[in-house]
Design brief:
Blueprint lengths: L1 E3 L4 E6 L2 E6 L36 H10 L25 E4 L7 E4 L3 H17 L21 H13 L23 H6 L2 E6 L2 E7 L29 H11 L2 E4 L5 E5 L3 H8 L11 E7 L5 E11 L2 E5 L3 H17 L6 E4 L4 E7 L3 H6 L16 E6 L2 E6 L8 E7 L3 H12 L5 E2 L2 H10 L34 H4 L9 E8 L11 E4 L2 E12 L4 E9 L7 E6 L2 E8 L14
Parallel strand pairs: 8-18
Antiparallel strand pairs: 1-2, 2-3, 4-5, 6-7, 8-14, 9-12, 9-13, 10-11, 11-12, 14-17, 15-16, 16-17, 19-22, 19-24, 20-21, 20-23, 21-22, 23-24
Helix pairs in contact: 5-10
Length: about 575
Amino acid sequence: ILRHQDQDLYYREHGERYGIGSYAHRPMPVVAADLGVTPEHVDEHSMPSRLDFTPEDFAQPWEASKELLPALRHAEIEDGFNGIFSFTPDGGPIVGQSREVEGFYVAEAVWVTHSAGVARAVAQVLTAGSSEIDLGECDVDRFEDVQLAPSYVSETSQQNFVEIYDVLHPLQPKESPRNLRVSPFNARHRELGGYFLEGGGWERPYWFEANAALLDELPGEWQPPARDAWSAQYSSPIAAAEAWKTRTAVAMYDMTPLKRLEISGPGAVALLQRLTTGDVAKKPGAVTYCLLLNKQGGIRSDITVARLDEETFQVGANGSIDLAYFTCEARRQRAEDPTQWAQVRDITGGTCCIGLWGPLAREVVSSISSDDFSNEGLRYFRAKKSTIGGVPVTAMRLSYVGELGWEIYTSADNGQRLWDVLWAAGQPHGIIAAGRAAFSALRLEKGYRSWGTDMTTEHDPYEAGLGFSVKLAKDDFVGKAALEGRSEETSKRRLRCLTVDDGRSLVLGKEPVFYKDEPVGYVTSAAFGYSIGKPIAYAYLPGEVAEGDAVEIEYFGNRIRATVTPEPLFDPEMKRLRG
């Protein structure tokens, strides 16, 4: 087999003939329903996946082939056909058990490049319940409903066909379709000059041009570094100003796109206790950070669980995969004991959330609410119903950026009003809207993990530095038996915090990491830490690598020196969060 990547061509010998395949043509989408049924007699010339050859689409690839292989210059095209490939909205395979039909497993859109790995993974799922490699990026349930619409599948699949061998920036969004899902704050975001990227169909502001003027006020120690052409894409120095204002005043973050589930009913406690590593059997108002594990102890998700009343919980989840998991497990639990039923609802679309964070957040809320938002009135990792500026809300004292504040939830119809009352109340305190670019940097300064990048089913809680979330003293839960005898100290690898020695060289994630000139891991997450004035990276390193040790990160062929550093880098005493 020969491949000519520059021209999207591949070749294979067939006896005395040569087979040529090409991607270098226009997308020609095929509707599955138009393929018909499999003919009674199937051979190489009669099958649903063999469509009529279109010579005009092969003209340029044929010329490129003759230039590469001179022996073809005197050959003729003997036979041709248009083949069919399965493309998905994100280009990955579709693998796993259907949440609609238990015992029905799917392995679709599998190319030859995936085939052996998918076969092994499916065999492991069928025999052991999970695979050695994380399947999150090809999980059958990973897509949001909007991404399953035929128009979305067609448009994104055609774009994936065009880009199949392109080198894409990790933040590069889909060009189209866009504006499929927007939060109730979208109009205000646009008024502030929001720069949007897309994820799961949601428009997510990464920074706001309205904050550009803050760069003139930015202290010298907060100045962002110069970026090379690659890292400068989908980036702006405005993120530094937004991080600065979050740390020194107060900022509003749109947290609406994050998946929210409601789990309720007489079996809700039992369901959550069985599936999570934490103890959620607490009094109403308690919020618990915990993990979902597979039977082998791998991390399938991290979630927050807020007990709103005796039988109702709000779960901050990581996407449709979590929704499918809870739905299937609730169905199984009810089948075993009908009295222990639990209802699982996706409430994301009907609700919205503002993260109000910063040292002046309490001044903002207290000016428009008669409820008690003091330390005594709402402690860290607690939730309560309240009214803010006349808007009914649920406030949870959580912060993914490491500052005082709350995740403030309300119904979607009240969303813009909530934004407006907080915005008006915050003007005397220098409030700003901030985007995900600043958010990502601030969460790394605090060492907060992001599921799917910093940990997956390939990692256990102790390797990921999340052992604190595992309550082995409680009754049995999924994965508990596998964790017996494990600890951070005995882990063969651990997720480590790295800071770049020169203070300016940036990496983006997935870069290889070297220790004593040997490749030992890769960067999971990275950002410039504006509060500490250094680039930050996280990577899984061998257990023997210690704090203070030197490593190197390879970025476009260059080795960047970094140091394994204690974490968190910012506010390790948690004084600001609990202030």
